[in-house]
Amino acid sequence: MISLAGGMPNSDLMDIEGLDAACRTWLSDSPAKSRYQYSLTEGEPSLRQMISDRFLSYDQGVDIDDVLITTGSQQGLELAFHVAVAPGEKVIVERPTYLAALQILDIAGIEMASAGGDEDGIALDEVEDLARSSKVGAVYVVPDFANPTGRVMALERRRALIELSEKYGFYIIEDNPYGKLRFSGQELPTIHQLARSMGSHNCIHVASFSKFISPGLRVGWVTAEPSLLRDMVIMKQSKDLHTSTMSQNIVSHYLASGRLEANLDKAMQGYRQRMHALADALNSELAGSISFTRPEGGMFLWGTLEQDVEASTLLQLALEEGVAFVPGAEFYPAEARYEGANQMRLSYSGITPEQAGPAVMRLKSALRKLG
């Protein structure tokens, strides 16, 4: 089975040697009596300082007290939704959007509304219509190499979204797990960075080390204005008290080792090769059947079936041929799943470049069975 379904980093592109060394360094340098003790809910000060210095240095006035360490970005999203959205308020999501965010909102019983999108990001005219006609607590976006579409929100649209948040009083929850995975094009400022430069404190920035260091360590972070962050700390205390001390220190020591930049370059070359291998194979074998846009980073190609074919039907035949993908309908709110009926997410992160051609040939065989 060749899987184009998973959205996980490629183990071959992770710096396992460096992570092992970071773990050994922490074990040898840390005091034995405190090594396995409870830690601060806010997170290890050394890691929070590194995040503030290395990833948030562009934000004037942002420091260690503005950073909360979370158990992956999943927990960060859960905390953000709960503190930003009051009872009776809605969260606006883009169609399509990250499946786990939909699940978190559904489990929490938070009402959703949705707005369409295009290559430049979420449709702001629809966002404004919703904000004008109902109580909106937050707008959730994945502005950089979105899951599932791989799109990047345009700079002017980011600014305009911030202006809408100020006009209507909602928060922007910026989910940014893929921002470091750019392998072409020009890097854009985060919404959080832009908001601060515009004098706005309405953005909650959620990020993670999972996609560019290690997913198994489950370490992420949230940056938000102080009152919101305090509420998140209290909520986190009741959920898991604090993120794994060992995981935090492995990340901290790995960052201190200076190996991240070189490994990021290696990983970006690897993902670029995989993306182009898959895109070239699709263009060669299925140009009249599946349309897509090559992303500038991230892990996903978003495909649209040209024929009147449901992706869920195609998936069953594809599995028989030995290739897997995720049907697009999975990334839409329940009432809009029909919009994704002929769409599909193809992940290139988990394959080798040599597997791209065989994967596409198996998709081609499955499509032939549909006639």
TrEMBL record:
<dbReference type="InterPro" id="IPR015422">
    <property type="entry name" value="PyrdxlP-dep_Trfase_small"/>
</dbReference>
<dbReference type="GO" id="GO:0008483">
    <property type="term" value="F:transaminase activity"/>
</dbReference>
<protein>
    <submittedName>
        <fullName>PLP-dependent aminotransferase family protein</fullName>
    </submittedName>
</protein>
<dbReference type="InterPro" id="IPR050859">
    <property type="entry name" value="Class-I_PLP-dep_aminotransf"/>
</dbReference>
<dbReference type="GO" id="GO:1901605">
    <property type="term" value="P:alpha-amino acid metabolic process"/>
</dbReference>
<keyword id="KW-0808">Transferase</keyword>
<keyword id="KW-0663">Pyridoxal phosphate</keyword>
<feature type="domain" description="Aminotransferase class I/classII large">
    <location>
        <begin position="33"/>
        <end position="362"/>
    </location>
</feature>
<comment type="subunit">
    <text>Homodimer.</text>
</comment>
<comment type="similarity">
    <text>Belongs to the class-I pyridoxal-phosphate-dependent aminotransferase family.</text>
</comment>
<dbReference type="GO" id="GO:0030170">
    <property type="term" value="F:pyridoxal phosphate binding"/>
</dbReference>
<dbReference type="InterPro" id="IPR015421">
    <property type="entry name" value="PyrdxlP-dep_Trfase_major"/>
</dbReference>
<keyword id="KW-0032">Aminotransferase</keyword>
<dbReference type="InterPro" id="IPR015424">
    <property type="entry name" value="PyrdxlP-dep_Trfase"/>
</dbReference>
<dbReference type="InterPro" id="IPR004839">
    <property type="entry name" value="Aminotransferase_I/II_large"/>
</dbReference>
<dbReference type="Pfam" id="PF00155">
    <property type="entry name" value="Aminotran_1_2"/>
</dbReference>
